[in-house]
DNA sequence: TGTATATTTGACCACCTGGTTAAACAAAAT
DNA sequence: ATTTTGTTTAACCAGGTGGTCAAATATACA
């Protein structure tokens, strides 16, 4: 009973790990069941034994990825602290996630484009919600800590600034930084501080 | 001779138009030669008559897209005008391009991820170069118009803020704006002014 | 006109794709 | 020990894929 469960779990987990790799690398259309099986070190038929179809396997992976992402975004929006701290946490969170999963941004962008409604529905279902942040920003405005701004404009700016370095990494490195890895690393290191300062100034934040 | 050229050009152009549509919509892996032929209203074999392979056809489209994009980005970086005006032109350019080609951002992101070196090489070859803007920003710093900033950090911020609304449109609309089209339109309309003001403040720009 | 040349097509092909199945194998349960 | 249950595999399949080709059609040329 024990060893049975064990082997099932390891096999299933090997599949999930491999599928995650391949789907994140190649996207749904570019991914091949055979390659997933190969990377998992198992027979292709076993994929269909555990997950009925490519679609089902993909959805499993996608749900998992979203489920990991959402809590970390919520976490950044929840602490009842200073605006500066909220922004810092937000930026740090994004950088950490993206450094750990280099293929994530392109993957998510691709899925948003492929099945927008589904992604939105899933994010909603997983409890992604920006009302708390909206409230927080409006409060900061009322207290006179920052100038009057649309919280959505602010948020889109923050996310855009945080995400784009990873989405456009090859362009930034290849064209703006002479293809120099060291420069890119330096750029990313400085990026966090830059964003925080830039955004706070953009909001007329008075410390 | 004349009509021959005409029919060839119209057939070729119908193919290019259809291929552009399909590739931008579905990406390289998701695109099907049959669908391109159908949308062009021609036989699939004719695709291979004009363009030898899917790869070749795709590259043609991709070069074309990049070739349209680059000049408009250079244009924004060239005018010897005020920083504010440069940013305005930049933001306007991006918005115009993205409104005209809704599938462009996801497509480009996908290609950057699929063949980073190739995209970089192609952009370089097409004359994409940020040295002028770097110089301009450094000049502005020296003249005391803005605080000292890394031009690359600035530029990535500007592009990120401009692009992200289009990349993440379904999320913004679906989750942040209650799926309300009118709100989304309003958001995009206000976006341009917001970015200009936000960025200028972020740079400590003194008018 | 007839002939050469370019364009367009239907039929076809080899290969790859996701997916199935029956049988072998391993492990628990009795 | 043997049956029962769950796991893993090799072999296979139908449909789709990019790509080809010879024939048909249109066009330019003499």
Write structural notes for this entry.
Two copies of one chain form a homodimer. The first copy, chain A, folds into two domains: 1-51, Homeodomain-like (Arc Repressor Mutant, subunit A, Orthogonal Bundle), CATH 1.10.10.60; 59-202, Tetracycline Repressor, domain 2. With 207 residues, the first copy, chain A, is mainly alpha-helical. Helix content of chain A is 80%, strand content 0%. The interface between A and B is large, with 58 and 58 residues. The structure holds a DNA duplex (30 and 30 nucleotides).
Question: Keywords, please?
Answer:
207 residues; mainly alpha; Arc Repressor Mutant, subunit A; Tetracycline Repressor, domain 2; 2 domains; 11 helices; globular; DNA-binding
Structural class of chain A: mainly alpha
| Span between termini of chain A | 61 Å
Query: What's the helical proportion of residues of chain A?
Result: over 70%
Low-confidence stretches of chain A: 1-8
H/E element order of chain A: HHHHHHHHHHH
- Can you give the mean pLDDT of chain A? 93
**Helical segment count of chain A:** 11
Largest interface: A-B, 58 and 58 residues
In short:
Chain A has 207 residues and is mainly alpha-helical.
